[in-house]
Design a protein that fits this description.
The structure is a single chain. Helices cover about 55% and strands about 10% of the residues. The protein has 14 helices and 7 strands. Helix 10 links the parallel strand 1 and strand 2. The longest helix is centred in the middle third of the chain and has 19 residues.
Amino acid sequence: MEKDLFSLINERMDSLSKGHKLIANFILSQYDKAAFMTAQKLGKTVGVSESTVVRFASELGYDGYPALQRGLQDLMRNKLTAVQRIEVTSGQMNSDDVLERVLNLDIDRIRTTLDEISKEDFQKAVDMIVESDTIYIMGTRSSASIANFIGYYLSLIFPHVKLVPSVTTSELFEKIMRIDSNDVMIGVSFPRYSKQTVKALKYAHSAGAKVISITDSKSSPLAKYADALLLARSDMASFVDSLVAPLSLVNALIVAVSIRNVDRVTQTFENLEKIWDDYDVYAKNEDDDYDV
């Protein structure tokens, strides 16, 4: 569907039935709560039946209520403040079931990511990384951890890997001004999306570089500049961004790249193992003797 849920509701509001208008008005005014309600709970809240909620979704052109709910969640994830995120989560779970709920939700996000990701774009991303002269990696705020993870492992495989830091806008362009058609830019951002990352990808795209966007949705601002779009679910867990599925995706990407460069990777780690041993980098097992 090309139009977002709010636009569809506003366009059709006048023609909706009384029950459907109750649902529509609740979604428009309480979208942060509605996004995580079942059809039954939403119906009970506004005073209509569950079947009325399901028919409302069909009336707007969705293939059932779950599809409408996903559309609403995609729309609102980038709108919620940290305080609103905490309020939503508090209404979904209590302290007694947090561990089970959060881990099960992360398991579901990985499954959904596997179902929805484009295998073609994944392979295209591997090709871009392997064939590039220089690999630029950009991710800020919570996504910085993913960007650092990618940068650490790719730098063990390739000699020219540049992790672009979170800096002022002028400094950002100074860091990436030499990017060209022989290079690739990997951008990572999830709601709430980083303007700096979007700007970096836009510049890389305009300079002719290949762009790999790791984000959560085709409606993400990063998607516009992507030559390879890698989607991973990152629904919120309170004010915390759930990055389990994105990290799992990144793991797969690094493994795929390493398989394409197995000889180089093997040689690199043979050298590293010798360096680590010579310079006593890692602590030994407790049963072994070593100097503190």
